[in-house]
Amino acid sequence: MLLGTLGGSNSAGFGVNASGQATGRSQLSGNTTEDAYSFSGGVMHDLGPLVGGIDSEGNAINDSGVIVGDVFVAANHSHGFELAGSTFTDIGTLTGGVNSQATGISPSGLITGDADTASTTEAIIYTNGSGLKDIGTLGGSFAEGQGINNAGQVAGSSAISGNAATHAFLYTGGTMMDLGTLGGSNSSGLGINASGWVVGASDVAGGAQHAFVYINGVMLDLNSLLASNLGVTLSAAFAVNDSGQILAVGSNATTDFSFLLTPVPEPSSLLLLALGIASLVLVSRHDKKRGTCD
Fold first, then answer.
1. Spelled out in words, what is the top-level CATH class assigned to the domain 1-136?
2. pLDDT, tens only, 219-228
3. How far apart are the C-alpha atoms of 58 and 67, rounded to whole Å?
4. Pairwise CA distance, residues 127 & 241, whole Å
5. Domain-by-domain residue ranges, the chain?
6. Distance of alpha carbon 257 from alpha carbon 255, whole angstroms
């Protein structure tokens, strides 16, 4: 289904829930402004009047229809927001900082993203009752939460000490754990389910990027769990649901595809079968005035 635009030339989608409600951003008529939107009932709704600011975007939506995103309150200054129906909440900033963004929301409404301080950008958790909580970095100057579950576990990415590389992390029980890589330099955590499975993308030795799933302390290359005769390479996994199904992207020699991977328990291993192949290319969350987020 083509979602259309809010009158401009371009739009992009970043989040969808189980009911098919979607959110993202769209240019308005004249292409000088971008507004967050919600899409439901076949109609794209402009959220700009509700969230205000210069430009805005919706980044995620949960099954209750609550949308999180960020809005530019001034040039180069953005704040994360929560929009529940017509109730708008600015999640604010950390001490010494001027920017925040909300990138993920759990079914119960826990929010993750990032916020800067005077010297770093930290991954965060936001709740209506407790406000903005800094959950830190892996020792580097930047971290961002991408997915969060109802237990408050967060999957994301962080620069490591010295900013030499970016690694996927799992924040659980008050501790941010470095999930490492599949043998290369960098990795990114992009999604998490209720069981604490993390999915994302990692460099392998030689520099190629492969999709991974992190389960019970082990990062697994999803390509090693596929039937060899499929002839595809999975490059990134963006989401995992509570049944263990994983949304991933990959390619063969000529074409990019999206895949739904369904776990099939076996006596001593986890076999992932590729189901529902479609000619669709998924992209990283967004690239806007504050920089690229992988």
1. mainly beta
2. 999 999 887 7
3. 6
4. 22
5. 1-136, 151-281
6. 7
